[in-house]
Amino acid sequence: MDSLTTQSEQSTIVDIIKLLAAAALLIGGLFGYYYYLELSLPLRVLMVLGGFGSGVAMAMTSMQGKMILDVGCGNGYYSLRMQGDGAKSVIGIDPSMLFMMQFKAIMHFMQSVPVFLLPLKLEELPCNTPIFDTAFSMGVLYHQRSPLEHLNQLYGALKKNGELILETIIFPGNDTYFRNENGRYAQMPNVWHLPNIKELYSWLKMTGFKNIKKGRIEITTTDEQRSTEWMTSHSLSNALDPVNKKLTIEGFPAPHRIIIACNK
What local confidence, expressed as pLDDT, does residue 31 receive? Predict the structure, then answer.
């Protein structure tokens, strides 16, 4: 079995974390306070409030006592929410060292919990090691050059009858989106393929998933994704057609999201 990283790489990661921790801790108090306010809400309720659709969010099986994989975990917000919902342990993976530092800052102000973040991509985990009861892939699939490979890797990480929670953007109707050489979708250069709902179902079935349950298809709003005093860069409003908000600035349908629950 290949190691996740070499000893030298592990040492380098630790050194980087130590060097950046002091700077991260300056803002850690703000993050910790924000997390503290939010962690009292059950994850399923938060998903409904966040527009994921009550059908699937409430159909999710309990996370009590389970081993969870959170792919593309960011700074660990949802990973912590999963543990707060009763997960035995949560492993979150994300290649961004900035997110790793934010998580380290947050944990400095929190009681120790079995949530662990690793600066890795899904393909860097050992292949076909079915140790997880539930895997979350939220906002990750459309950034993959090979979405089927991503689904296969998730399938291989799950125990028998394990559950996948998949949140992604789909293309409405019967069309699909394929990124061309210099293409962008909603100003994002790293969106490679947006399937329609039928194609997404076929991908899941080809991978071997069963008991596929889908929530409502939701159009992402500028109330949900917006610039704030804490995030001053461009957001969704800059990516939509200024005249017709149902279209992206490139002329494609505006982002439609769906969340799906299924089993191995």
Answer: 42
Question: Which two structure tokens, joined as six digits, stand for 197?
Answer: 């709902």
Predicted TM-score of the model (pTM): 0.79
The full set of domains in the chain, from first to last, is 7-263 (3.40.50.150)
pLDDT at residue 227 greater than cutoff 50:
yes
CB atoms within 10 A of CB 20: 16
In the three-class reduction of DSSP (H, G, I as helix; E, B as strand; rest coil), residue 65 is classed as coil
The answer, yes or no, to whether residue 106 has pLDDT greater than 80, is yes
Model confidence at 199: pLDDT above 50: yes
Amino acid at 251: G
CB atoms within 10 A of CB 173: 10
- For the CA atoms of 111, 103, 50, 177, the dihedral, rounded to the nearest 10 degrees, stands at -150
- Look at residue 141 and give its three-state secondary structure: helix
Residues in CB range of 42: below 8 A, 6 or more apart: 85
Residues 6+ apart with CB under 8 A from 44: 57, 58, 60, 85
Q: How far is CA 79 from CA 83, 208, 234, in A?
A: 6, 26, 26
